Structures are given as C-alpha cells and as structure tokens.
Amino acid sequence: MATITSNANWEAKAATPVHTNNLLGKWNVFMESQSDRIMLWFLISLLFQGVLILPVPAILIYYTNAPVGVLAITLALFFANIIAGMGGAGIKALLWIFAVSIATHLLMILIFMI
Fold first, then answer.
1. With contact defined as beta carbons under 8 Å apart, do 73 and 108 qualify?
2. Residue 51 counted as domain residue
3. Which domain holds residue 98?
C-alpha cells in the first residue's frame, strides 16, 4: 500500500511575541479572552440594543426631523446582531457588530442633535 510521507525536517522555532501596545491589539486580546462568554455577550448586546438603541430612531425622527434612513440603519444593525448571535458567529464578529452599532448610533445622535 502506497502512503504519502513527508521528508521535511523542520525545526520548530518559538513564535515571536506579539506586541499589543496599541488599542486594536488590546481590543483583540480582550475579545479572545471573552470567547467562553459568547452567550453572555449576545444577551447583553440584545438587551442594550433593545432598551437603549431601538428608541433612538423614534426620538431622532420625531424631535429632530431626521430622515427615515436612521430607522433603516438601526434595524439593519439590530438584525445583524441577532443573526450573528443566533447563527453561531465567533466572539470577534459579535463584539465588532456590537461596537459598530454603538458607535454608529452615537454618531447619529451627535449629527442630528447638534
């Protein structure tokens, strides 16, 4: 019986340490440390978005005459979060969607309230 064998004699070298002194590196380390708490982060993001973020378009449209596109952006981010959490996305994808949603809504509040 013919089997495929590898004749490579490579020596394993220690990996060079990754410096995480920048903000993105620290964010990645934090996300990787939270991988065992993915369900908790999914529930936190759903509660946070349902209680604090979903009323934002109603307030912006009613009080500041913001365009209806604000509602479309909010619902797209909300359903992206639900699909990512229930679809089995990784912790990095879930936390990135949550962070982008918070940043987007804070930016919308700043744009239409000022």
1. yes
2. yes
3. 38-113
> pLDDT: is 6 or 29 the higher one?
29
Query: Is 93 among the domain residues?
Result: yes
Task: Confirm whether 56 is domain-assigned.
Answer: yes
With respect to residue 9, please indicate whether it lies within any of the assigned structural domains: no
CA distance 114 to 110: 6
In this predicted structure, the answer to whether residue 7 has a pLDDT above a threshold of 80 is no
Torsion over CA: 96, 99, 105, 107 (sign): negative
User: What is the predicted pLDDT for the residue at 11?
Assistant: 74
In the chain, how many domains are there? Answer: 1
User: Tens digits of per-residue pLDDT, 66-102?
Assistant: 999 999 999 999 999 999 999 999 999 999 999 999 9
Report the distance separating Cα 61 and Cα 72, nearest Å.
12
